[in-house]
Design a protein that fits this description.
By secondary structure, the protein is of the alpha+beta class. It folds into 2 domains: 201 residues, PmbA/TldD fold (2-Layer Sandwich); 224 residues, no CATH class. The protein is 20% helix and 39% strand. It has 9 helices and 19 strands. The strands form 3 sheets. Strands 3-2-1-4-5-6 form a 6-stranded antiparallel sheet. The N and C termini lie far apart (66 Å).
Length: 439
């Protein structure tokens, strides 16, 4: 155990009791413990409506015995014996499957990747962030309808019966603001692991700008148009359709259109898509995944060619593959599942707004896209004609239709700027011909 580990382990030495007790009944077990503090402040119009501070913790236990996996969780670690008993009991009801063991410990760096030591969960700081957003919004005559600012500090501990004793620390800042001008709305947000990487004034200014600029939208006839999707609009389509198709479980169960496409060109040759869990200060960065497998960069698409799929231990063992360190958890109560850490779309960058295009800031309804075929029809929101990088006349509400998989072969360019949208880090993309359904 590293010296870093030794310093903190005494604070959670009860986890050793969990493992000792569990080994009396099962072949292997894993303990996941999370604790953290958060503070949030909300706006109702331009007034701080609510400010809260909370402290939370939670424990998840996974057991494996004769290939049968059981699990249980609790938000009261003092009841770990009951939680362990429930996990063992659920395993007895599970179906046995191929299982080759939890990971063994390895030496990993001690320094957190997604942690800002200067961040404090201070209600005053949250209110100050709200104030800065309001200052930015004041540049446009829109009415503020809602907003929020939250700060969080948390730690995650993973231990297993093979000797893994890992702990990591995380910080987070999240901002959002909504505005309205007549019948037009504007929304903007920002999030990062560090205060240095968020811009509250910009959040406020952009939300108010989109509300005001969209107020006098003009109808557009149905047709094929050059379109630029902002990172936010692109993330909706990518995250709901394309990224899930890289999930190894979906691939082997016949629920991915990409299942038979390994080694084939599935995107423009200038495009690379990869997961980088080791990116400093990115929100999803981590040295180890949710099962304790060391993380590494995974190139899913390189030069437009599909190279690999994502696996966790359970899926890898079932289909005779190797885990890609892609296991994630939705919280202490969730079992590890296949996901990604920092999914990045990269490639050649250029100015994609020099010629006249329709710029689409957001889309609504991407969750209704067909995950197998990739077909979608979404409402466009805060859309404008743009030329030479300047916003011109706004486009009244219209629909955009197409196919998420096919559009990646038609990407005509990617912006030089990127943006984090959840766990996706994306550029804006240009499509020379995209179907817009107007009037």
């Amino acid at each position: 155990m590293s010296s870093f580990s030794t310093r903190w382990w005494v604070a959670v030495d009860w986890i050793e009791e969990v493992i000792r007790e569990g080994r009396r009944s099962v072949d292997e077990l894993e303990v996941f413990y999370v604790e953290g503090t958060s503070v949030s402040a909300d706006l109702k119009r331009k007034n701080v409506n609510l400010a809260t501070t909370s402290r939370e913790c939670g424990l998840g236990i996974r057991t494996i015995h004769n290939g049968r996996i059981g699990s249980s969780s609790t938000n009261d670690p003092g009841t770990w014996r009951d939680c362990l008993a429930a996990a063992i009991a659920s395993g007895k009801l599970a179906t046995a499957q191929t299982w080759s063991g939890l990971p063994d410990p390895v030496s990993l760096p001690a320094s957190p990747l997604s942690f800002d030591p200067a961040l404090e969960c201070d209600p005053g700081l949250a209110r100050d962030l709200l104030g800065q957003m309001l200052e930015g919004a004041a540049e446009h005559p829109a009415e503020i309808t809602a907003g929020s600012a939250s700060l969080s500090i948390s730690s995650e501990t993973l231990a297993n019966s093979h000797g893994i004793r890992y702990r990591d620390h995380y910080t987070g800042v999240s901002l959002s603001l909504e505005a309205i001008e007549r019948q037009s709305t504007g929304y903007e947000f920002d999030h990062a692991s560090s205060l240095k990487d968020v811009d509250p004034r910009n959040v406020g200014e952009k939300a108010a700008f989109f509300a005001c600029k969209s107020a006098d939208g003009k109808d557009i006839p149905t047709g094929d148009y050059p379109v630029v999707l902002s990172p936010l609009a692109y993330a909706e389509l990518l995250g709901n359709v394309f990224v899930p198709a890289l999930n190894g479980r979906s691939v082997h169960s016949g629920r991915s259109r990409l299942a038979q496409s390994l080694g084939e060109t599935i995107a423009d040759p200038r495009i690379t898509m990869y997961d980088d869990p080791l990116l400093p200060r990115a929100s999803g960065s981590t040295w180890w995944d949710a099962e304790g497998t060391p993380t590494r960069r995974i190139d899913f698409v390189r030069d437009g060619v599909l190279r690999t799929f994502a696996y966790d231990l359970k899926t890898a063992y079932r289909y005779d593959k190797k885990t890609t360190g892609s296991a994630v958890r939705g919280g202490f109560g969730g079992l590890p599942a296949i996901g990604h850490h920092n999914f990045i779309v990269d490639g050649e960058r250029e100015n994609i707004l020099d010629e006249r295009v329709i710029y689409i800031h957001n889309v609504v309804g991407a969750h209704t896209a067909n995950p197998m075929s990739g077909d979608f029809s979404v409402e466009i929101s805060n859309a404008f004609w743009m030329e030479d990088g300047g916003f011109e006349e706004p486009v009244r509400s219209a629909m955009m239709s197409g196919n998420v998989f096919d559009l990646h072969k038609d990407i005509a360019g990617m912006s030089r700027e990127t943006r984090a949208v959840g766990s996706l880090i994306l550029p804006s993309i240009r499509l020379n011909e995209q179907r817009i359904i107007g009037k």
